[in-house]
Amino acid sequence: MSSEVEARKQPSMSALPIVDLPGDPYADGVAHGRAAGDGITQNLRIYYDRFQREAKLTLAQTRERGRMYHTVIERLEPAYARAMEGVRPPRRPRATASRPEAAPRSP
């Protein structure tokens, strides 16, 4: 089954969750991420697939473009950027034998 057919079978816009947000941008993002996490994950998969198929971008290229847009949003709309960060806080890379630089640094 193609992604286009799958996308058509997704719930309509009226099925989106309504989330009460406390007001602080970061806390709003956290609440949004918790309430809509599965839908956000599914939407990211759809868009990653489209960017790869239609724009011929790799996952790494797509993420780099996202980081560039985030930098602009931080400058123009800092509260919105904080809410985005709350939806999915940055992950700390796990240290491995092949990536010791990922280990947390001591103060």
Helical element count? 4
CA radius of gyration = 17 Å
Shape: flat
**What is the string of SSEs from the N terminus onward?**
HHHH
Unreliable runs: 1-9, 99-107
Main pleated sheet: none
Q: What fraction, in percent, of the residue positions are helical?
A: 55-70%
Beta-strand residue fraction? under 5%
List keywords for this structure.
107 residues, single chain, 4 helices, disordered C terminus
Q: Quick recap of the structure?
A:
The protein is mainly α. Helix content is 61%, strand content 0%.
How would you characterize the overall build of this protein?
- The chain contains four helices and no strands.
- The protein is mostly helical and 107 residues long.
- Helix 2 packs across helix 4 and helix 3 packs across helix 4.
What's the helix and strand layout?
Blueprint: H1 3-8, H2 25-55, H3 59-76, H4 78-87
Helix pairs in contact: 2-4, 3-4
